Amino acid sequence: MIINHPLLGPRDLSEFVYLGDACLLNRPDWQADDALDQFIDYGHTRDNPAGLHRELWYHEQGDRSWLVVTRNTVTHEITSVELARNVARAEGRSK
Amino acid sequence: MRYSGFRVIKEALTGHRGWGPAWRDPDPQPEYDYVIIGGGGHGLATAYYLAKEYKQSRIAVLEKGWIGGGNVGRNTTIVRSNYMLDGNEPFYEFSLKLWETLEQDLNYNAMMSQRGIINLMHSDAQRDAYIRRGNAMILNGADAQLLDQKQVLEKYPFLNVKNARFPVMGGLLQARAGTARHDAVAWGYARAADQRGVDIIQNCEVTGFRIDGGKILGVETSRGYIGAKKVGSCVAGSSSKVMAYAGMRLPIESHVLQAFVSEGLKPVLPGVITFGAGHFYVSQSDKGGLVFGGNIDGYNSYASRGNLPMVEDVMEEAIAMFPMLGRARLLRSWGGIMDMSMDGTPIIDKTHIDGLYFNGGWCYGGFKATPASGLVYAHLLATDTPHDTATAFRLDRFHTGHMVDEKGMGNQPNLH
């Protein structure tokens, strides 16, 4: 598998570390009334789809950037690679 | 028909005209008491024990392909009970005891071979950890024996014990562990279940559940609707897909695990060895091929094939421990899809839907658990209470904080 890094170009799978579903970017609000349930869900339950999956990869053996990779879990085909910080900012985080 | 040595001789003398199919190929009935989804080792074992131990009837096993075509047909066949935690070890030891009498019970040759497993150790800290685990095993009625470097060398003189980075200081031996012929386990359970009236329905994919008022009514399948009083899902690898039909999200990620077989060699490896500093396990099949594997690739996948970095990693571990393998050629490799749970431990429990049960999250340790998984799942389905050895495998343990994290990795499935 080759991940096409938005800044560095195509890089080999072995340079990256996998974290999991990109829903991990959206940490629940700790002050919400149901914060406990939300955090249990955030920490443990996953959609785990067979098909397109948005997921977090860390370029550990490279520029140490976090990436949001959209990949098909059935074919391993990667359709989009974004910098996680851009994704988070676009969603209104880290002003 | 009972299989026996006399039968083999009789058939040999009469032109092998008396052998029949080992199980029927029935069409689905409109309704069953129990529908088991998934005709792998665990599903077939569940049906068998439901019929035999719990005297239930009207049982069907639905399999989307052919039985034994999933993970029970693509594992590295190791059978052991060398776990540590209270939630795990009694269950796996119960399983190993069932393995020891499995062939007589099923009247089927599963080529169960208790050839022993050695976990190699490479540091003082690891020796401490192995002593602790060995003691936990003995306390739970299993067998464990600590070997020093000399004793390991007596068994396996070809090991590179003087590896500069990971010297072999000794190992933890479980002599009763070993290997079994994986396909024969599926076939043996299928035949024995069929003889007790279980309908094994192949090429029958479940495409949905019919649920009314929080109660299960039956399953929609590619061969039509089948009514059921109780439905048990048993489809590790695809659990998230199947349970999503019931609107459930699970504490599970699907990952790919690769395994490898070398060309056939003369007998060189009498037992099972695992490398303690990485993740590598190897045994030799009766056909002569070395069967080995390592870690999961580490990313979500349903592709049944992996990538090259893990292949390289596994080969490096092999050569580091067994320099003699340097000239053996790799014959083939394959991948299987694992239910990786959030704490590395399986789930066998009821769901919030009345009459719908779940068995999954086996990570890459499901094969050794086949008999016990079937028996305790049958217990749960028949009595609605968990079996004594499987009380820790609850679905809600992530909410209550009672995780069973054998490896101490936390909620990161690709590290278990």
CATH superfamily of the largest domain in chain B: FAD/NAD(P)-binding domain
What's the CATH architecture name of chain A? 2-Layer Sandwich
Largest sheet of chain A: 4 strands, antiparallel
Amount of helix of chain A: 10-25%
- Total helical segments of chain A: 2
* Largest sheet data of chain B: 8 strands, mixed
Beta percentage of chain B is: 25-35%
CATH architecture of the largest domain in chain B: 3-Layer(bba) Sandwich
Q: Which class of secondary structure composition applies to the elements of chain B?
A: alpha/beta
Strand-and-helix sequence of chain A, N→C? EEEHEEEH
Which ranges of chain A are low-confidence, i.e. pLDDT below 50, for 5 or more consecutive residues? none
User: How many structural domains in the coordinates of chain B?
Assistant: 2
CATH class call of the largest domain in chain B: Alpha Beta
> Strand-residue fraction of chain A?
25-35%
Using only C-alpha atoms, the radius of gyration of chain A works out to: 14 Å
Organism (chain A): Marivita cryptomonadis
GO molecular function (chain A): sarcosine oxidase activity
Protein name (chain A): Sarcosine oxidase subunit delta
GO biological process, one term (chain A): tetrahydrofolate metabolic process
Short description:
Chain B: Keywords: Cytoplasm, Nucleotide-binding, Oxidoreductase. Chain A is an alpha+beta fold and 95 residues long.
